[in-house]
Amino acid sequence: MGFWHTGNIEHHEPTGLDFTYQPREVVYFCPACSERFDTLEVLRRHRFEAHSYTRPLMFVRGLELGATPLRVTRQLVPEDVQLDRALSATLNGKKVLPANLPELIAKVTNDRLTIVLSNEGASAQFELLVHIASEADLVGVEAAFLKLANARSLSIASIEGFIADCIGFETASAYGDGICHYLYGVLAKERAGDSSLPFEEYSKRYSRAADQLLGFERPLAQIIRALVAFHFNHFEDAQTLVPAGRLQHAAVLFAGLLEGWPWHHEPQAAQDEGSALVELLTDHETLRILRWTELGTSQLMAYANDIAAQTKREIPGFDRLKLQLMLAEAKAAQGDADGARQAARELRGNSRTTIWAEALLARLPDKESGK
User: What is the top-level taxon of the source organism (predicted)?
Assistant: First the structure.
């Protein structure tokens, strides 16, 4: 990982987790058609007008609940819970008035809630896993993580030490578990010598980390989730989870490429007050990619051979895709139209990269005329 494997610790000492995190404005997506809306009210109106559902609906903090249980780690207020098309309700098997349900849910700090909403024609069941973490326990987990970071060594033993240090922070156990899954995933991805985890295990650990940390609006949790999203090439998700800086810049760049925009022409020095934490948490392969995304077109050209060499290594396909995009852009900048054209055609059949490939081919000079 960044501080532990790149030799940059003398320049980027971990300084703490207290920098200000300011998430972007919430955007709401319709689960039925994926159309996006700026407000929950507009989304709800769209749902009722465009999708003739009769089943009751339940929203928590603007998120429509479905069959998957929703984990709640921050204290709710009644206004966070909204119901629609519900004439009757039960909470863990007990009948309650739908109007009273938001207040009853908001009082819960640690429980599994099963909610059944009904109307004249249909019913729906929802589940909430409520485990509210105390601020003291959250801070305790973060202090244990900084202790791990300051030791400058990521290993099975150091992660076990982190787990031991978190034992007393019971209400934040899910927070600590999510961090652990990510760290184990990094060990597997980097094929650490003392790790018994197979390489293929890393993706499962990354996914479990993102799931566990969902709902924790803490810089550490948000950056881990952003790194996981970036690794799996969910660039739009990654860029909304972190403040301005290297990771957000890279996510915006790749999202732009997939929409047909060219590589930026000038070097981009993307730094922010959370950069040290981002580098600390980033695995070696991703850190290399992040650094290359800051290069301007002329600088990227100089690294074409290095990028090509990385694509031939035994690395995850998610990382290889990013490298293939960069390599094609580097070849195009070099004037190697044939090389860029070949790279673009190799990715033309991928639904994620079709728009980028078509745009790159359109930018290249005509093969016959050379123009």
Answer: Bacteria
Phi-psi bin for 363: left (phi > 0), alpha (psi -120 to 50), beta?
alpha
Mean pLDDT is lowest, of 25-34, 100-109, 173-182, 350-359, for 25-34
Distance from C-alpha of 360 to C-alpha of 23, rounded to nearest angstrom: 33
> Rounded to whole angstroms, how far apart are CA atoms 355 and 254?
12
Question: Cα-Cα-Cα-Cα dihedral of 242, 245, 249, 251, to 10°?
Answer: -30
Dihedral of alpha carbons 100, 101, 105, 111, sign? positive
325: left (phi over 0), alpha (psi -120 to 50) or beta: alpha
pLDDT reading at 371 higher than 70 = no
* H or E stretch covering 91: strand 88-91
CA 64 to chain CA mean position, Å: 19
In residues, how long is the chain? 371
**How far apart (Å, rounded) are the C-alpha atoms in residues 200 and 182?**
14
Quick one: which of 331, 267, 265 has its CA closest to 304? Answer: 331
- Based on its alpha-carbon atoms, the radius of gyration of the chain, rounded to whole angstroms, reads 24
Q: In percent, how much of the chain has pLDDT > 70?
A: 88
Average pLDDT on 12-32 reads 59
pLDDT tens column, 116-140? 999 987 899 999 999 999 999 999 9
- Tokens describing residue 109: 């700090």
